[in-house]
Amino acid sequence: MADLIGASLPRPDALGKVTGAARYPADLIQAEMLHLHVVFAQRVHARIVSLDTSAALRYPGVVAVLTAVDVPYNAYGLIEDDQPVLCHEEVRFEGDKVALVVAETPDAAAEGARLVAVEYEDLAAITDPKAALAPDAPLAHSRLKSNVLLHVPIRKGDTAAAFAEAGVVIEDEFSTSWQEHAFLQPEAGIAYVDEQDRVVIETAGQWLHEDRRQIASILQLPEEHVIVRYAAIGGAFGGREDLSLQHLLALAAWKLRRPVALAWNREESMIAHHKRHPVTIRCKWGATRDGKITAVEATVIADGGAYASTSVEVTKVATLFASGCYEVPNISVDGYAVYTNNIPCGAFRGFGAPQAQFAAEIMVTRLAQALGMDPIEFRKRNIYREGSLEPTQQPLPDGVSALPVLERCIEEASKHINVTRAETQTMPHLRRGIGIACGIKNVGYSFGYPEQATATVELNGKAELERAVVRLGAADVGQGTHLAMRQIAAEALGLALEQVSLIAESSAEAPNAGSASASRMTLMGGRAVYDAAIEARARWSANEDYYAEATVQYRPPQTTALDAATGAGLPNYCYGYAAQAIEVEVDTRTGQVQVLKVVSAHDVGRAINRQQVEGQIEGCLAQALGYALLENFQVRDGHVLTPHLSTYLLPTVLDMPPEIVPVILELADPNGPYGARGVAEMALVPFAAAVACAIHDATGVWLKQLPMTPERVLVAIHQAATPSSAAQSSKEQQ
Amino acid sequence: MTAISKQLMTFRVNGETRQVAASPTHTLLEVLREELDLTGTKHGCELGHCGACTVLLDGKPVLSCLALAIEAQDREITTVEGLARDDNTLHPLQQAFAERGAAQCGYCTPGFLVSGVALLAQNTNPTRDEIKAALAGNLCRCTGYTKIIEAVELAATRLRKEHEMTAST
After folding, report:
1. Which of A18, A232, A478 sits opposite B94 (nearest CB)?
2. Can you give the residue ranges of every domain in chain B?
């Protein structure tokens, strides 16, 4: 059975998904359960003067209205407990929750929610992250002294001296916007109290044990009294990392001792769960005449919104990658995560890396052009190699494949795209251009955050091994991790796939694998499964029993927190490397950008399941295309203007490039199972910059703001065509 | 809002006749999921934007979140649960989706299958553009659509072979 690794095995869960038998959280809801409805604040920043539930309670069918006083510990968060379950005294963004109506029917719950009377006194709101940094800015949280959630400096070398000696220096500002995960399955779930007095939540998420930890903390219960089970999960992309409604279900079930259900509609999902951070990056890059990048200065400001979520970590990642995947001797970067009264921001595929490298990759291309060098050659000269020092002054973890990935990308691209010259345009107003960009993103948790995955493998067999049960609390959010874990176990044990079963869906039945995020599960979960399989097999061989088991906790090489003054440290244990070549066609009459071809190259270490790896790259490219061109999440004065899929546009099949070429390199990671490293986020990292470079190649204008909507493209083209264009060129397009 | 009383409705769903009491204000999606226990059809946006709730009404794809159940009476409704063939084997498009990795999270899959089956019922030799046109109303957030298009092409090839074999016997 030594051929399971790399095979494009079809997914066993596909059968239920193509027949309609797969049960997603909303499919678990029964009419006889109690139904919940959330009362949202719909205020950006306000003091709660009074909250009257009496009319709601009188409505037929309403059973209870839960408010802040019903929450045993009314604060939660992935990293910091700064978000109230139900607001007491103050609301800080429009999706804040103030009450939870419980009723016999969904309609009664909705009517009851409308009857909850909340009197507010509006407070000064802060919705501009730059303005939030001012010492006299209104505070997003009345209890805090400052809106600054994090300031992280990275210092290496002497930038001032390097700029003084540089042959070319370029300075500019870039801005990115919110992005909505828009998983097709809106948040939903059920909860009940079982016969052992444990509260059981059946829902979707990305990390069983972290959901359990936070819910247990809110209910002030021992963790063993809380069971989190995942039904089929309808996509995640980071958007299910924070609690959304899981804790509300748990609270209501625990309080009322009856099964409860809640399913959000799309608008509730859009206004209530966190988004990708909008980031502004002011940066200055310098290089020598012979093509070495010598200095990068940058200020990175991330709008964290009203609650901390994972903003601190996202901002550190964006700060680390402000100089991209290039070895730069002199660096001075300051990253800020800022509280505002906007929608909270948190994890989203890429986790700060796409924002930072949108700016970095454009700057690299512009430096090359200013020096009269080919941008590919310029990249090759500066790109990370084995032993290169990171901005944090330590060598990169082994397995640096940035250069071979770029080289392979160019090699493959030359078969599909004329990488030095775009194809001749068909019409005068349709202009074609080509863009190249590289990308780097950490695999796994960073900056000293505890990183581990634990797996149990149970073996049965007499003369030979007959079957294995793998226990690993890993969320299959759609990426196919459950099959990959079975492939790894079967390969390690020499069993057929059918002889290996996986138990992964319940926090009570499977050990903590960490989250399905940070492109980490194949490496981390897979390594834990591999190690547990080898250990269990050794135990089974060493005795006469027909049964053996082993539980192994895998810990990767230790990372460290960054030094508070210089950022020095070991930020990560593994990176993924990507490079893309993209051809676009720009309609100079409408500003419409059509992506025609994408070559997306990735070092995956080892493809455990090639079909699923391709699926990750292709699917990530669709989100990247939306991020670069289409998805325009608009917020005005703290109010979300695009809470529906008719105003927040996702790429359809018609928006996708006619030619997509995923290129998979397998340069083994030293720690990953069979050498595998993660890939899930990587295609999002270089994409927007590659498109911007292609637009520039086609039209001569630089887009510096995401998304690159037709209006922005058109404005940039018109500005370049007017006599005052020189003065306008480095200003922001609105 | 006063509760509107339910009334008896009769549906032809997936070849069976089903009678249920349902509210005349409820959508076909709600009645399929809540009264008929056909939860394969998914709710994605309730506003006709995402296509997850697509079903066939008399063979034509319809967004069940925008159709009133009461208006679907006496018409032939096909949901994802009814796509399998009479001998209980999967429809070639279901088979192709499973083989080709066209379902990742799978939540949009029922809607895509229904749209795709409607296309293949009319045209077993669709061009890429025809496939894209048929699927343009269905959103997928996981796959990037590549494998979905490939699955439709694979199913079309197999259907053509089936037809050739039937024709030659």
Report:
1. A18
2. 7-82, 92-168
